[in-house]
Structure formats: structure tokens, C-alpha cells
Amino acid sequence: MRLLLAFALFVLFVLPTTAHAHGTRTAYLDVTLTSETEALATFHGEHASAGLRLDADGCSVEDLRGRSFLVRCPRGVAGVALEATGWSVEGVLVSRVTTREGASTGAVLTPRSPRLVLPGRESTARVLVRYVRLGGEHVTSGVDHVLFLLALVWQAASAARGRLTTAARELVRTATAFTLAHTLTLTTTALGVLQVPVVVAEASIAASLVLVALDLRPDDATAPRTRGRTLLAAAFGLVHGLGFATALGDGALTEDAVALGLVGFNVGVELGQALVLAVLLVLVAASRRLTTDRVLANVSAYAVGVTGTVLFLARASLLLASRLP
């Protein structure tokens, strides 16, 4: 027993100390492809003090600030091998290469393997797939967008009196109006034609949740009919498109892939939206067999409305704070 206890103390205290004393130190190398013929390489880290050597004819390296180097290759930097030299770090050099399209790749360099090959220009297919993934992730990961889609599904199911096929047709009408509307504002905002502050857009989306939650009442004569629901979905789609456009901000939509990025992102948004709608429609249809419509309506209304209220107050407070001197 004492032997086991001594071994445990050795593992807990002695080994970590030894590992820390002789552990691997890490430096970082960031390479940004600024054009087809130039790249900027910068070393980071307390122990990073290195140079660059090229294995390409006609290329040059300009030392900018000791740790930053400008690489120039008249024939293009794609496929050029950079070699880190003169390391003062005992361990590894973690490198990250950012392409002109915004994609990042990483690699680990060691003194025995110090070469980094710069990637070529991304193919059209890869750029398209990347923006499709970005659009899909933005829809499926946004609680405000998912809750709004839940409200659309519940409205369709309630109007169809539980008939799944009828609810699907109803949902196609409202979802199409929502899609066309948010595509309009997404595109015009991403292109800079329409400019709305992000905090205003996010607060407006939260407000749309509160408003749509007020219509989640079964068998209510005051609830909007099909045409009214379609118009409301279009109006709210204009607001949500402003939120979708924020995902393309901060350089996510590069100058080299504006049209392709918009198409891919929109496709991703629609695929993600279709997936969420299908899942929610099945869940709502299944839930109607377990409890009454009124219970489901109240649960959905409170889930959407309370969340929308909390988000609106939080986002509105940020808007007010930004306006204060």
C-alpha cells in the first residue's frame, strides 16, 4: 500500500516537474498569402528568433522587423518551400498559412523537418464547399434562427390541424417567403449596398422572436391567415438576412470570391434551414400525439418569446451603451 502511495505521489508531483523542466518549447510562424506573388511571414513566441530561406529561383526574402519577412516570387508563391533557419527554440515551430480566400492550414516544423510548402490557389469547388459549410453552420448554430424556424413550423402544423402533408405545404409557402426576403437583405448587406449596424440587426432579430411568439396560439381567430403568415415570414426574413450577413463580415467574404461566396453561403443557409425545418416538423408532429395542441402552443410560445425577450434586452442594452458618450 505504501509502495502504491509513493508511486502515486511520484506520478503526481515529480513527473510533471521533470516534464516542465525539460518540456518542449514552442514558437509560431504565421504566413499570409497577400497576393499571388507575395507572402508575409511572421515569427511569434518568446523563444522565436529565426530566419527564412527559400528553395526557388527568382524569389527573394526581405527582412522587415527582425521577426517579419516579406517573400516575393515573380512566378508565384504557390508551391514554394520555405525553410526556417537559426532557431533559438528547442522544440517545434507551429506554422499557420492563410490563403487569399481566407482558408487556413497548419503544420508542425521541427529542426529535422523545417520546410513548409506554401499552398496554391484554392479550387472553385473547395471555395464553394467552404462557404456552403459556413452558411449551414451559421443557421444550425444560431439559437435565434432555430427558434424562429420552430415558430414557423408550429404555425404551419397548427393551421394544418396536425396533417403532416398539409403542414409541409403550408411550411413551403412561408419558408419560401422567408428565404427570398433574407436572401435580399443578406446579399445587399454583404455587398455594402445596405449598411445596418450589427447590434441593431441582432436586436431586431430578437424582437422578431417576441412578435412571432404572440401568434403561437391554437384555434385563435385573431391569428393571421395563410397570406398574412406568408407576409409576416417575408417581413421577418428581411430582418434575419441582416443577421446572416454578419457571418460574412470581418473579411470572411474575400474580393476574389464575392459571387462564389454569396452563392455558396446562400446555398448553405438554405440547406441548413431545410434540415432544421424537417427535423422540427417531425418533432412537432410526433409531440402532438403525446399532448394537446394548447400545451404545445404554450410551451413553444414561452420558449420562443422568453428567449427573444432576453436576447432583445441584452442586445438593446449594448445598443444603448454604444450610444452613450
Structural class: alpha+beta
What is the percentage of strand-forming residues? 15-25%
Q: Approximately how much helix is present in the residues?
A: 55-70%
Number of domains: 2
Whole-Å distance between the termini? Answer: 67 Å
CATH hierarchy: architecture of the largest domain? Up-down Bundle
Question: Strand arrangement, largest sheet?
Answer: 4-5-2-1-7-8
Shape: elongated
Number of strands: 9
Summed up, the helix count is 8
Characterize the biggest β-sheet: 6 strands, mixed
Q: State the name of the first-level CATH class of the largest domain.
A: Mainly Alpha
Radius of gyration: 27 Å
Compute the average pLDDT. Answer: 77
Order of helices and strands: HEEEEEEEEEHHHHHHH
Oligomer: single chain
Low-confidence stretches: 1-24
CATH topology heading of the largest domain: Growth Hormone, Chain: A
Tell me what the structure shows.
The protein has 325 residues and is of the alpha+beta class. It folds into two domains: 25-117; 124-323, Growth Hormone, Chain: A, CATH 1.20.1250. The chain is 55% helix and 16% strand. The chain has a six-stranded mixed sheet, with no helix packed on it. It has a three-stranded antiparallel sheet with strand order 3-6-9, with no helix packed on it. A hairpin with a 4-residue loop joins strand 1 and strand 2.
Short structural description:
With 325 residues, the chain is α+β, with helices and mostly antiparallel strands. 55% of the residues lie in helices and 16% in strands.
